[in-house]
Amino acid sequence: MRTLMTGPAWVEYGQIYVASGDRSPDVPESFGGQQNGLCGATIDGTLFLVTGMHTGRVGFSVELYDDAPPVDDSWEEIVEASFRPAGEAVLRGLGSDYWPLELDQVGYRVRYCGSEMDAGHDAAPPDEDEPEVDRYVVQFWPADHAPDEVVKQTSRTAAYWHGVARKAPPPPTPEQRAELQRIRERREAEEREARDLESWGGSIPSERIQDKYMSLLLVQYDRPLLDDLDRAAPEMLVKIARWAARRGCVATGLDRTEWIATRLDQMDAGLDRRELNGPPPGTFDGPLFVTTFGGSWPHNLSVPLQALTVIDSTYDDDPLDAAIDTLLRAVDAVGDGHQLVAELREAFPDLSLSS
After folding, report:
1. How far apart, in whole angstroms, are the C-alpha atoms of residue 161 and residue 38?
2. Can you spell out the DSSP letters for 162-176?
3. Any idea of the CA torsion for 128, 161, 93, 78, to the nearest 10 degrees?
């Protein structure tokens, strides 16, 4: 026999546990389908151990044997169950007490013995200079799995917990757990779909549109616009991006700056980005950033950088990205998304007919 732990142990709510791996016991599932209510062993890799003392110190020992030890009839309460660690096993309470247990990952029979459970239940927590009222031992030895049993019962406290355990429903079978998991996953999928439907205005767009995260912001102004943009030819998307960039520059007054107006005209003419008119010398002598932050329009940049950023966005390698990006910038610049989309529809009457 090896003693794995011995000494006072702090319990709370009359509970102390053996846990292993990432598994911890729980009530009432730990006792579901059992005959005994002192050593809950139905959650794999865990033991839920009940004490008479509600909160305070109890005497406690953990022992490991090569074979089944003789039953020591001096203990008032004796129960047995089966246990197999799911990883490193530890004895712990609800507080900070923690004892590693050197148990192999094999099947064990567990005998849990206690004495003075009623006295512990009725007593106040012992002071530091007082002995523990109730005491317990957990004995392990290698063995095949077998049903739990009550070997000896003496106290009213043990009788009460045995009665509670026998009324607890048995734990779900592996098949039932798998079905419950499938139901849970199906419910979560349905909830996600419902949230997505609400977010997308009652109709899920294509994956292409969903991949454009910012496109979700256009739903509040015109949900069908997303489908129209999705079907539009690349040439039309580029025209929309250029229209939106110009509309944003007009709304912010940037188009009244000569070099920006020229750059917008060159953008509309389809010049390569490297051929666009640049700002005159001295343009960036001032600060590049300002303290005002807005939404999609780059208000935090200096005026020259605002123009460069918005016009450059029309040259995105993906025309759909270019259209969505510049439209959202223009919405922020104009300040009224519904108005801007109405203007877009008027400027591109064939958009809804595109394919």
Report:
1. 7
2. HHHHHHSPPPPPHHH
3. 80
Q: Check whether 354 has a pLDDT greater than 70.
A: no
Query: Phi and psi dihedrals of 44, rounded to 5?
Result: -50, 135
Q: How far is CA 156 from CA 40, 78, 121, 150, 232, in A?
A: 18, 14, 10, 14, 79
298: helix, coil or strand?
Answer: coil
Mean pLDDT throughout 233-261?
A: 95
Dist CA 209 CA 202 (whole Å) = 15
Q: What is the C-alpha to C-alpha distance for residues 296 and 291, in angstroms, rounded to an integer?
A: 15
pLDDT digits over 1-38, tens only? Answer: 999 999 999 999 999 999 998 877 777 789 988 999 99
Q: Given the structure tokens 């712990």, which residue do they identify? A: 92
User: Is the pTM for the entire model greater than 0.90?
Assistant: no
Q: How many residues does the chain have?
A: 355
DSSP classification of residue 296: S
- Going from the C-alpha of 54 to that of each of 14, 254, 303, the distances in angstroms are 4, 75, 71
74 contacts 150 by C-beta, under 8 angstroms: no
Interaxial angle between packed helices 234-252 and 258-268, expressed in degrees from 0 to 180 and rounded to the nearest 10: 170
The tokens for 24 are: 């911890």
Among residues of the chain, what percentage have pLDDT more than 90?
74
**Token pair in block for residue 110:** 């567990």
Residue tagged 């958009």 (tokens)? 351
